[in-house]
Amino acid sequence: MAHKVYPPYFHRLIRTCAFQAIGLALIYILIACLISLSKHWSYNTYAFDLGIFSQSLWYTMKGNVLYNSPEGMSHFGYHFQPILLLLLPIFRIAPYSETLLVIQSIALGGSGYLIYRLAATLGLEHKMALLVEVFFLSSPLVHGVNFYDFHPVALAVPTLLVMILGLRGRRWVVFGVGLTLSLMTKEDVIVALAVFGGVMLLAQYLKGNRLRKAYLAIFLSSLAMGITAMVVAKIASGQDIPPMLRCITERWPYQDRP
After folding, report:
1. d(CA 208, CA 222)
2. Residue 179 and residue 219: Cα distance in Å, rounded?
3. Is 59 within 8 Å of 66 (Cβ atoms)?
4. What is the C-alpha to C-alpha distance for residues 256 and 254, in angstroms, rounded to an integer?
5. 37-47 b/e with 16+ CB inside 10 Å = b?
6. Residue 67: phi, psi to the nearest 5?
7. pLDDT tens, 139-170?
8. DSSP helix/strand/coil, 81
9. Burial class (CB in 10 A: 0-12, 13-18, 19+), 20
10. Using one digit for the tens of pLDDT, what is the confidence trace for 160-208?
C-alpha cells in the first residue's frame, strides 16, 4: 500500500514551536471537556456552584441582573464577579450549564499555552518551556479547579497570565486588558492584586527610590475596584453589611483546619 503523502508545509507546521504548544493546550481542552461534561451528565455537579452561575446568567437575560434562587438575591451581593456579564453573548447562543463547563476548560487549557509563552520570555528553550506547560496542565491543582463545577475566579488564571506577559513585554494594552479582566473575576483577586501592587511599589522605593507606573496602576486600580465592589454588593443585597463582607470574615475561622 502506498503511504499517504502530506504536503511539505504540513511537516513544517507541526515542527513549529507555537503549533506544539497550542496542540498540547488543545489536547487538554478536549480531555477536560469530556471529563467535565461526563461528570455533569452523571449528576455529579451541584446547585452550589454551577447552578448558581447558570441561573444567574439565565435571569440576567430576563432582565434581573445575576439573580439566582439559591442565594435569594443578585450574585453581586455575595461576590463581585462582573466577568460573568462578559459571558452573556456566549450563554445567549447556548444557554446551558454545559456551556460554562466548556468555557472553564478552554480558559484553563489556554492558560497552558500562556504558561509556555511566559516560560519562553524567561529564557527557557522550547523543550523546557514545553515541559513547563506539561507540568502545568497535569497539575492536580488545575484539575481540582476544573473538575469541581464552574467558578468565574478560574478565569483569573489566564487573565493574570495575560497581565504578566504584557508587563514583561511592556505591551501596555495587553497589560491593561489582563489587569482589568483579572479585577473582574472576584474580590479575592482584587485584594491579592492590591497587596501585590503595594508590595512591589514599596520594594522598588526602598531599592531605588523610584516608583514604577505599572505597579502603581495595579495598586490604584485594585483600590478603585475594591470600593466599587463594596458599593455594588451593598446595593445588590439591600443590607447594611452585604453578604460579601460576611463571606470574607467567615472564612478566617477555617484557616486552622486541615
Report:
1. 24
2. 11
3. yes
4. 6
5. bebbeeeebee
6. -75, 145
7. 999 999 999 999 999 999 999 999 999 999 99
8. coil
9. middle
10. 999 999 999 999 999 999 999 999 999 999 999 999 999 999 998 888 7
